Amino acid sequence: MPDTAPNVQWDHIHLRSPDPEATATWFERMLGAKVIRSTMQGKPRIDLKLGGADVFIMPVGAADKVNPPPVTPYQGLDHFGLHVTGIDAVAAELKKKGAEFTRDVFTVRPGLRICFLRGPQGISIELLERNAKYV
Fold first, then answer.
1. pLDDT score of 92
2. How far apart are the C-alpha atoms of 45 and 49, rounded to whole Å?
3. Which of 9, 27, 112, 130 is most exposed, with minimal Cβ within 10 Å?
């Protein structure tokens, strides 16, 4: 085992979707992601910029032999969290847009308020706000 840990940084998140356009539209509409359309090896490609992170969306076809999305909770990657400001107002706006919440906003511990919503293909997304005003 090396004496020092490697210097790692986040590069991207990779999603698989049977409908990349619908997935991109959901993230754009609900969370303000910037949709980036390009081509790769002559095929259309859709990526997102979300909260400073690159999100790649790979199309999935029937012949790709990809397993269906798991139902939360499950082992492995459980969810990803996005920091927001004014979580109650953000959640209310998302509900108006039709977002499906799996857990409404609540204070998990002093200084931390969270909620969970279900994204495309069952992706679990946590919204959180850290603020001393939450007791």
1. 97
2. 14
3. 9
Strand (E) positions, the chain?
12-17, 34-40, 43-50, 53-59, 80-83, 100-109, 112-118, 124-130
pLDDT along the chain (135 residues), means of 10: 76 93 97 95 94 94 87 85 96 97 96 96 94 90
- pLDDT value of residue 2: 57
Domain limits at 103?
Answer: 71-135
Give the global pTM.
0.88
* Nearest-angstrom CA–CA distance, 75 and 79: 11
CA distance 107 to 131: 10
- In the three-class reduction of DSSP (H, G, I as helix; E, B as strand; rest coil), residue 121 is classed as helix
What is the tally of structural domains in the chain? 2
Q: How far apart are CA 15 and CA 113, in angstroms?
A: 27
The Cα–Cα gap between 118 and 69 comes to: 12
- CA distances (Å), origin 32, targets 8, 12, 21, 51, 52: 27, 17, 15, 9, 12
Q: What is the C-alpha radius of gyration for the chain, rounded to an integer number of angstroms?
A: 17
**Is there a domain that residue 1 lies in?**
no
